[in-house]
Design brief:
Strand order of the largest sheet of chain B: 3-2-1-4-5-7-6
CATH topology of chain B: Rossmann fold
Largest sheet of chain A: 5 strands, mixed
Radius of gyration of chain A: 21 Å
Strand order of the largest sheet of chain A: 5-6-7-8-12
EC number (chain B): 2.1.1.33
CATH class of chain B: Alpha Beta
Number of domains of chain B: 1
Protein name (chain B): tRNA (guanine-N(7)-)-methyltransferase
Largest sheet of chain B: 7 strands, mixed
Main location (chain B): nucleus
Family (chain B): Belongs to the class I-like SAM-binding methyltransferase superfamily. TrmB family.
Oligomer: heterodimer
Catalytic activity (chain B): guanosine(46) in tRNA + S-adenosyl-L-methionine = N(7)-methylguanosine(46) in tRNA + S-adenosyl-L-homocysteine
Chain lengths: 432, 252
Amino acid sequence: MDDAPVEGVELNKDIEVAPALISVHPNQDSVAVAVGSDLRVFDLRGRCGVSLADESSGPFHKDSIRAIRYSANGKLFVSAGDDKLVKIWSTEAWHCLCSVVSEKRVSAVAISNDGLYACFADKFGVVWVVDLHGLDSNNSPVNKKAVPLLAHYCSIITSLEFSPEGRFLVSADRDFKIRVTVFPKNPLDGAHEIQSFCLGHTEFVSCLAFIHTVDYPQGFLVSGSGDSTVRLWDIVSGSLLDTCEVGTKTGPLECNGDEVGYSTVTDVCTIPDCSLVAVNIQSLQGVMLLSCDLSSRTLAFSMVVSFTGENFIPTSLSSSHSGELLWMITGVSKLHGSDHDSLARVRVLSGFKKSNCDSCHPELIVLGDNEVPGAEKLLEKLQGSVSIEGKVFSAAAEAVKRAMCNLLIKKQYPADNREFRKRTRNDKKIKQ
Amino acid sequence: MLESEVNPTISKSTGLPRKRFYRARAHSNPLSDSHFPVPVSPRHVDYSLHYPHFFPLSDQVQNAKRVRFADVGCGFGGLLISLSTLFPETLMIGMELRDKVTEYVKERILALRVANPGQYQNISVVRTNSMKYIPNYFGKGQLLKMFFLFPDPHFKEKNHRRRVISPHLLDEYSYVLEVGGIIYTITDVEELGEWMKSCLENHPMFESLKDEELEADPVVKLLSTATEEGQKVARNGGQTFQAIYRRIAPPL
């Protein structure tokens, strides 16, 4: 049995719910959103929606998309998920350059800084690598084969990140571990040299991000976890530099009595040039900002930005190289008992550049719907509609929270009905 | 020895635990998420618990001694016990997934320490899944020797990924082994022997030991004689297959 056994049909349905994802082009040329199996892209320069093109007929992805990302140079975009397909897109013409088949459902993706290799991780703990050499917009889509790069034994890999200078690939898993591996010159032969392990989290690690500036080009790693902390690491030595207990800083949270995982960190995003880290916490109606002091190597709580009047608990965050705006999305697919098949709401936080980054509390404003770049056209394209009823989102947030818990938190099976659970085993000797 | 009179699991005559009270199935599921405590990081391993003789105080940071030998899948502890007197100043640990077997080894070590004052203080056992948690116990380049004696063959091809020696897991073992450190493997299953040898041969961080080096190493002989499993194989006249490799610096 590879995956944890499910108790009943109920649990299965909860795991299927997929949170909405957002990713913005490094130069803010476009912004992409994934809601369930639907991939939606909006061209910010041309101020219009983008039609994606692919050789295959029908939907591009046949099941929930679990990871999306732009390459560092902005030329490529990758999407992958439960349909075991990894699709690499050209961001100029927005057609699919190649589709890679994965053996298992994909849980994380990353593209090397030079755009030559794409890595994806599956739910069994294997990280695969695909060679992107020779991918050209003019050629017809290619079918490339992935080879195994490294593995976390039997653990769901939640996040993959390349280090700023491209020397290392960092992978985080559900067994509280973060592994830093040297990314070799010939990754197709495998990445066998482990640089370090960043150990310290006491629950699953859910997200990774790098913080780096011109003065600190190698940067430091920031990680978020189910243990309600955000930690700062030096990946070369694997040492824990600082821990920020975000669980205690949220103030009163909207939680429906379900204590488990209520202040899980679900996403981290660094704002370039600002040394600020934006953090998503389950049940927090807003986004928390932490400030990182790179010289003293510390991470401190800065502030919480809330969205007044709206039930907005972001499921994903993204920022571009310019670091002026923070894009956020909340949403979910396959929500049961709702009229909508999928829901999404995009919001933008602005003011990072204008504010004095040295001050503790930057002046940030949540942009109104008509102030967002692309305004109504963008919202219509990415959200599916311009306005959505607020209370549907609480149900969505609840569903996403449950799905993440079920997937990543190890179940405690009570001892009393152990015999009942073992009833399907066929190797037991009959007792006399 | 009042304790052994009341407790039937310990033999009255030798003071050592009786195996039949610690019987367990030979196979254990390495994929199961059993709930045993796992140290957050190598710095969190409580050495005073395992080696009270060397670490009398609970938080003695001064002592730089660290575990240097690890017996992965130590079974009933035969190898550790033989190595203990051969390398009395070296700290060693056995890792075992099965609960009852770990208890047996614990009792055995405690009894030996009592019966032989000053000896067997350098060995201990921990119940853990070494395929998942080795980086939690050992830091980079900490180990000098790693032992994989008669591992579970997992015959079916679909179960090959559960084998304790695999190309991916060798990355982790090479991480905890010092450059120059040695990995010892032995099995009585020919196919598994070939598999382990081929995994090690193809891994860029390992090179095989030359015959002269194998002759000179006193530990090599123990592989087939020191453990219960090894003795059983010898009794049945079976053949054993070894693969002993050295951890090298990665090629540039």
